[in-house]
Amino acid sequence: MAADTPTASRRRWGSTVAGVLVLGVMLFPLYWMLNTALQPESGLLQVDPVPGGLDLSGFSKALSDQGGHLLTSLLVSFGAVAICLAVSAPAAYGLARFGLRGSRTMVFGTLITQMVPGIVIANALYNSYVDLGLVNSYFGLMLADASLGIPFSIVLMRSFMVSIPGEVLEAAEIDGAGPVRVFLRVVLPMSRNSLITSGLFAFLFAWSDFMFALTLNTTDDVKPVTLGIYQYIGAHVGDWGSVMAASVLSAVPAAILLVLAQKYIAAGIAGGSVK
Amino acid sequence: MTTSTVTAPASAKTARKAAAPDPARRRLRRRLAQWGFVAPAVVFMLLFFGYPLVRNIVMSFQHYTPKTFFTGEAPFNGTDNWSSVFQDVLFGKALWHTLVFTAGSLLGQFCIGLALAVFFNRRFPLNGVLRSLILLPWLVPMVVSGIVWRRILDQDTGVLNTFLDTVGLGGQTPWLTSPDMALLSVILVNVWIGIPFNMVILYGGLQEIPKELYEASALDGASAWRTFRSVTLPLLKPVITVVLVLGFMSTVKILDLILALTDGGPADATQTLGTLTYQNSFVELDFGAGAVVGNVLIVISAVFAVFYLRANRTEGK
Fold first, then answer.
1. pTM for the structure as a whole
2. Does residue B93 fall inside a structural domain?
3. Of B7, B35, B148, the CB nearest to A33
4. Where do the ABC transmembrane type-1 domain residues begin and end (chain A) (predicted)?
């Protein structure tokens, strides 16, 4: 291993080339999405392998048609993240620390929720939402989208909070801090990485939600971008350029957040997997 | 909301009994405060996961019509929904498609994901960069990926057929428009969607396997295939189980992808239990029939979960 022979080195670079090819195949659909978005004039015709120039008219059309839906998605997703973290962070701490009776059952129940198909939830939820007047409301969709992230967040943050040294918490309690204070002033700051990781995943789940948006809305009042694009292909079959431009735009906020949160996520996942 | 109802009495008591410390009451107050941390999540999950399960069972015995939402009337109709769903040819088809779709997707995702995980487990330049870039498709919502693929797979102008035509492999394949091809195409797209997840988790599992075992195996003169079968696979088994179980749970209930690619067509060739539930309830507004199909979906998931827990327990002993 110490002295790389030329053949060994060549074989390694050979692996790199193979890896690049694999990546090329896997990412091709994303490239094609961008490529089609930059050729809005191609319409229903064949799309050139490389865009001839920088034609952004597809993007400007997509922005004017879908800009509002992008904002709706942002609002709903951030709302869902807030609800998700507010509900799951205290629960994760409680399950990690307090040794309450039934803690194991609750963790197990959290995992079991992953078994319930979303469409079954929507089926029952729609009827309750009609009764409660939550259909076509931002808050209703936020709550439903938060449910996508809560089980995952509880499990992730709990596995992180289990590893906070007990002495730190005891020291705070001896100083006279109650459980709420200890949680807010000590536990939350120490769990920053897992909190950010959970928040990011909750955002991704809510952002990419299509099913609740489709089933819990009957009017155009609350229309996230996933639903907007889906209905777009019904109405604009010939206009693939702007459909694809809207698709590119739908990936942008998640990409920005991922870049911003990158270093916390690696730490959040690594910290969680220790225990 | 729940936090306040649980902790409020506790803090009210704090003021009253500051004078007389009572250990038993103090412990109770502490317990109540501790439950206050967990209660909101428990209530939330009961409302959003427990309640729908129960409500679906009830709904499957009720007669829903488009008028129900004006009149609020959904009379009980015994087992009418169940018998009409089970007699429907479409239900049998959807059940079969769901099984084929799930088995095919898992097989493809897992095999390719494992191959890539093993590949990336070797050391070579740019390994880390390439491995992270493979996760990029996660940034695109699944329904949007489906729409992109719909364009790629278009029979006349899609890039896949154009490519196949150029290299002389036909190029007139009706990927999504022929009832014989559509299910296969949908499976292929779902394999593409699942590969990064399988790869990441399996790669993590491979990293946990001690390097010494490979060295020992190499000293014994074992072939690469032998090492893979006798060292890698047995040690990877817990991770493999997790990947397959999570994969099953998310695949069997698929909805987004199929709606984006084919809307269940052509001629119901890609109708699954998920899309059938959606169609019954939200297109035809027959929520009773939708609930029946949904319940079948839950039973399939539950049976699978029981098998998984059983397998886990015997393994642990």
1. 0.87
2. yes
3. B148
4. 70-261
